[in-house]
Amino acid sequence: MYIQHQIPLTALDDEMLSFLRAISVDMIHVDLRKGAGAVGGAGDLQDGVDYTETFEKAREQVEGHGMTLNNLFMSCWDAITLGRSDMDAKIDAWGRMLESIGRAGIGHLGWNFKPRGNFRTTSDKGRGGVSYSTFDTAEFERERPPAHDPPVSEDAMWERMTTFLEGVLPVAEKAGVRMALHPDDPPIPEPLGGVAQICSTMPQFRRIFDMGPAETHGMVFCQGCMTELLGEGVYGAIEEMSAADRIAWVHFRNVRGQLPRFAEVFMDEGDIDMKRAMMTYRDNGFAGPYMMDHTPRFPQSKAGLAGIAYAVGYIRALIQDVYA
Questions:
Q1: Which site from 161, 199, 216, 299 is most exposed, i.e. has the minimal number of CB atoms within 10 Å?
Q2: Is 50 exceeded by the pLDDT of residue 45?
Q3: What is the rounded distance in angstroms from the CA atom of residue 104 to the CA atom of residue 171?
Q4: What confidence score (pLDDT) does residue 36 get?
Q5: What pLDDT was estimated at residue 35?
Q6: SS3 per residue for the chain
């Protein structure tokens, strides 16, 4: 069973890779969302530029440290999610990106479909003075960010999702790349920022996955997001999506509370029974990898790597127990 960790493409350096391998990370997730167009002087992915060489170099660099570059990640572009006039051209460019990924020998592309991004409120404080990523609906309602104008309806978002998947899933299949959708965060099926959220609930995911086969169309099962909505129901969601072979990898994190208020906490102190969760993945056919996703923010200037090491070590210990 495997552990995965994320690095931005622009921060893919040997020192960090050596550290991750030392703490037992097996696979790397490379985030393309920041500065992808500037890497190597190449044009932007949204223009359909061939990134095969850049992706190959990244894969080879990761492999040089004894790990696998399992997936890349890109948010679905606003031209697509907001239905702009160049939507068709951007869907075609997404297909070119999938082809580059496949030619580079990388098997997965993570993505999301949320043009307004994530929403958070004032952070709770935790042990040792760390800050927990927090969402409080009451605070959010008092201090809502400016809404998208014009507002975007649920029907419009479903139409765009359908058009997008009809355009890219056949390309993904031909390229040998499996796409994996990340949930909304927070998973509230309402227009929090003026745009309807359609990647929040289990009925929404069932509808989305009816649009394509599991071989090319899966999900990033963000255990934190799903618990924020479902609470104890998260174990049933793990069972359903694992058994359906829809989970490409797991964001294995813990939360305290559920909507209307929650905080992302250390793995050992949240509401999720992490061992029970891992056993449920195992018993329903999930083959990995597990990924820590986030860690609380430390006040100390050089403590970030310690948070990563703590989370990865926690996952490794559970794997050694659950998969013994």
A1: 299
A2: yes
A3: 15
A4: 55
A5: 60
A6: CCEEEEEEHHHCCHHHHHHHHHCCCCEEEEECCCCHHHHHHCCCHHHCCCCHHHHHHHHHHHHCCCCEEEEEEEECCHHHHCCCCCHHHHHHHHHHHHHHHHHCCCCEEEEECCCCCCCCEEEEECHHHCEEEEEEHHHHHHCCCCCCCCCECHHHHHHHHHHHHHHHHHHHHHHCCEEEECCCCCCCCCCCCCECCCCCCHHHHHHHHCCCCCCCEEEEEEHHHHHHHHHHHHHHHHHHHHHCCCEEEEECCEEEEECCEEEEECCCCCCCCHHHHHHHHHHCCCCCCEECCCCCECCCCCCHHHHHHHHHHHHHHHHHHHCC
In 3D space, the residue among 229, 146, 238 whose CA is nearest the CA of residue 193 turns out to be 146
For 3, 98, 201, the CA distances from 178, given in Å and listed in that order, are 18, 9, 22
pLDDT at 39 over 80: no
Token pair for 198: 């359609």
Q: What is the pLDDT of residue 83?
A: 96
| Mean pLDDT across 110-134 | 95
The Cα-based distances of 274 to 94, 201, 268, 277, 319 in angstroms read: 36, 21, 8, 5, 11
Between the CA of residue 176 and those of 4, 104, 250, 252, 293, what are the distances in Å?
A: 20, 11, 21, 26, 25
Q: What's the whole-model pTM score? A: 0.95
Are residues 75 and 97 in contact, defined by beta-carbon separation less than 8 angstroms?
no
Domains of the chain, earliest start first: 3-322 (3.20.20.150)
Angle between helices 154-175 and 202-209 (to 10 degrees): 50
Tell me what pLDDT residue 43 has.
56
Q: Which two tokens stand for residue 9?
A: 């493409």
Q: Select the more confidently predicted residue: 149 or 283.
A: 283
- pLDDT mean over 84-99: 97
Pair 21, 309: CB distance under 8 Å? no
Backbone φ and ψ of 219, nearest 5°: -140, 155
